Amino acid sequence: MRFTHSMKRTAILTILLFLASCSNSTSQNSSQSSPTSPSSSLITSEAPIKQGEKVFTSLKGIYETAGEATTTPVVRVIIPQTGWKNLAKSDQISLTMYAESLVSVVKSNPSKYVSIPSSAPAHNTFVSKIANLCQDCWSIVVSYKDSQPYGIDETIVQGDTPWISDDPCCRGIKSSEFRK
After folding, report:
1. Rounded to two decimals, what is the model's pTM?
2. Which residue has the higher pLDDT, 110 or 41?
């Protein structure tokens, strides 16, 4: 049997989800960060993720964690709305794959991404939640502003897990549907 690129990607993502569910150590953050190459992920060598990183960088995107006080925190990628609208569908899909790969980056150093001071009572709880993010706990949000500091104006697409638990009014498109 010959495996397609899509079948290989699905297998790798399934393995990552399994490993993430078995992991007991990872953390969370809500501070904004510059683009970082997700070298710790098994899927970083794939062309769509590299292309997504190029798109992210060209749009001057940022990423942060959000929802640490909720049951489903996420890694949130924020880009200008005009940039998103001008992307080809293939570049939009690549950007979703890059966003998903950032989950591993954030989980590898969760305390870096927690937005509250380390002296805050909830700090360790937030770090633990970020450290244990599910592999598809990410979202892409657009800002109506074309330059930083960005606003958080509309969720466009997000991983299936947070999509299920989000308010239907504001959740955007489920990644499994968007990537079809």
Report:
1. 0.74
2. 110
